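The instructor's notes for this session suggest beginning with a concrete chain rather than abstract definitions. Hand out the sequence below and ask the class to guess, before any prediction is shown, which regions might be ordered.
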Amino acid sequence: MDALAGLLDGPRAREAFLLRMVMSPPWSVRVEDEAPLSLMCLTEGAAWIVPDGGDPVRLHPGDLAIVRGPVPYTVADSPDTTPQVVAGPGGTCRTLWGEPLDQAMRMGVRTWGNDAHGSTVVHVGTYQVQSEVSDRLLDALPPLVHLPADTWKCPLLPFLAEEMEREEPGQSVMLDRTLDLLLVAALRSWFARPEAHAPAWYVALGDPVVGRALRLMQDDPAHPWTVASLAGACGVSRAQLARRFHELAGEPPMTHLTRWRLDLAADLLRTTNATIDTVARKVGYSGSFALSAAFKRVRGISPQEHRTGTALPTRRRPPSAPRARAISTP
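After discussion, reveal the predicted structure:
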């Protein structure tokens, strides 16, 4: 498994929320849908994305933005325009005073806005629940990624826009898979840029020693790895591997292995019906008790709570992997 495939393996939209938004200024939509990830492509006009606590980013036609939730943000014709609409979970919308607007602003198949002939058109695709996007991918993203049209090209954008206006058998599956491919294409372009601030372990994969150790752990997480066995497989001493790994990846090898195993387990718990014991053995634990102990220690909740969403995780983030700031590529 190459580094990018390992990072991106996991986007699986299931009846994703897709919308063609048509607006005339002045307009401003406050997004409070609590979704883990959204993609926005401006096809006509101009728009701004204003993250809470972040700098506004202007979108031009052809630009793509990836917004990581669940923190609210605003999309508007200008950063100074006061929100008129609040978008909530599940595609609901209301005024600032709570009056429903779902029907009043609906304009056909997956089309919504304040003017059917508006000068601004934004196509939106949203992963609505956490299980549709892997934790390790969300951990690697800043709150906002901006890909200007002149820095990347993707034939999926016009295809998705065309498909969003259709209503045919199997349409939701077609849209879900297209959204997944668009996300992977966008992130592949973004992670290739030096300003992407990719995770330390991702960068460390380029090192001949640490990269091999990382691939061994990623390709076979169920193996009973130790620092000594990894060092032997990499052709260096235990002390050399430990020192070099920490310098490049920002954490000890066994700490990384634990996080990798738990990230894989978290995805399996949310995306499969496998028992906790089966998941445990698949990622390198002796059984459900061992996995539960590690899960609670690192994430603060049990595997079952993670699977059912009955508790909010209190996951610890290592000092070497901080949340990056919003990125706008030149």
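Then share the key points. The longest strand covers residues 37-44. The two ends are 31 Å apart (CA to CA).
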